[in-house]
Amino acid sequence: MPKDFALTFHDDDHLHQEREHQQAQDADRLVQLAKLEPLSDGGLRTSKLLLEALSKAPHHHEAKVLLDRLYQLFVPRWHFPMLADRVRNRAYAAAIAAKVRPGDVVLDIGCGAGLTAMLAARAGAEHVYTCEQHPLIAQAAARVIEENGLADRITVIPKLSRNLIVGVDLPEPADVVISEIVDTMLLGEGALATLKHAMETLAKPDARAIPERGRLMARLVESDKLLNLWRPQEAEGFDLSAFHHFATVARITPNDFAACGLRSLGPAKDLFGFDFTSPEILAGRTTEQLDCSDAGTMHAVFVYFELDLAPGIQVTNGLQSDGHWGRTAFLLNQPRSAEPGGTLTITAHHDTSELSVSVHAAVDCTDDAHQRAILMEQVWVLGTRCDDTFLPSSTSHYAKPGNAPAKVVEFQI
Ligand SMILES: C[S@@+](CC[C@H](N)C(=O)[O-])C[C@H]1O[C@@H](n2cnc3c(N)ncnc32)[C@H](O)[C@@H]1O
């Protein structure tokens, strides 16, 4: 190699190393700044600093770890399987095409990646206002919408719907309100309160809503595998049953749901119905008898929702459904034998965002043979069960801890 060329090569190498060193120092400084940044803006400034650090030093370990942590904090992981759920997406596309008319002003509550807003624009809405509580998500959605050529038809508002003001955030009340803010138990994301506010203050009096209605349903199911997954009886020869009271409500991932093969033992019963065109946020309570039509073993009460998006268009996380939503099963303390004609009585309560379910056991009151008392043998309050809690029922005499029934005669099966 000629001497001059070798020198130049060496100098370039040195310069390159120096530049890399400088950039690594700049990246370190940006990461330190990111760590000092408060998260009150939903992580916008922090992510900007971390991305800048990574543009200078693409392999910066701490910047990568912090950015991932930030995204996990503000962008729930269920967004990805949700967006890949073709059944859900198709149902929303069909319902929006059926209910949004050309010229409509649409309010889309919970923009996410922007899918429902873009579907509304595609259906002919004059303008779509879509709000999103997480600024990082809203920022990304605006990019998605722009890349799909819809930025002039959709306005992304990085706010909670409750903070929107007609005349400020949207020019007039909406003709249609679209939302997909239900969790596996329908109410957990606060859909009732959010939609009551939206339909009353952000929409025209006769506005359409997607979804229109929702129901919570329950049925008895059998699944050894589910029980073994949530309440393994033993491990390496040790009895684990004293740990089981922590596992009362099985929140089942789609994969576990597929693997556990829950078998229905009887027909579903409606627990509660909700009208999302004029939602009420009253608490509700119902006592229902769940019927067995098949023989087997009762392991759990399976509770699921059905959402009517538009006439004839539904989404559900029921037993036969496929999709990204988790499933919920309230596990019985003890498996019980099921026979055709048998029943299990439950009482369900809901408030604005939570559901509790409790199982009844029929008992005799020996002081009055004609009176029946209902002992709430097992109570589930989503994640929490309060054993031996006695609750009043509107139609029955009540067994209370102070005058506990003399004898449990039989379960209603
Ligand atoms: C289940 S995702 C649905 C996203 C999109 N609409 C879709 O269907 O693909 C719900 C989104 O709504 C947001 N969200 C929930 N309640 C909200 C509210 N009251 N105001 C603004 N955003 C809300 C959540 O942060 C989440 O990004």
UniProtKB/TrEMBL annotation:
Pfam families noted in UniProt: PrmA
Query: Which InterPro entries would you find in this protein's record?
Result: Arg_MeTrfase, SAM-dependent_MTases_sf
Q: Which GO terms describe its cellular component?
A: ribosome
Q: Does the keyword Cell division apply?
A: no
* PROSITE patterns named in the record: SAM_MT_PRMT
Entry's PANTHER family?
PROTEIN ARGININE N-METHYLTRANSFERASE, PROTEIN ARGININE N-METHYLTRANSFERASE 7
Q: What is this protein called?
A: Ribosomal protein L11 methyltransferase
Source organism per entry reads Palleronia marisminoris
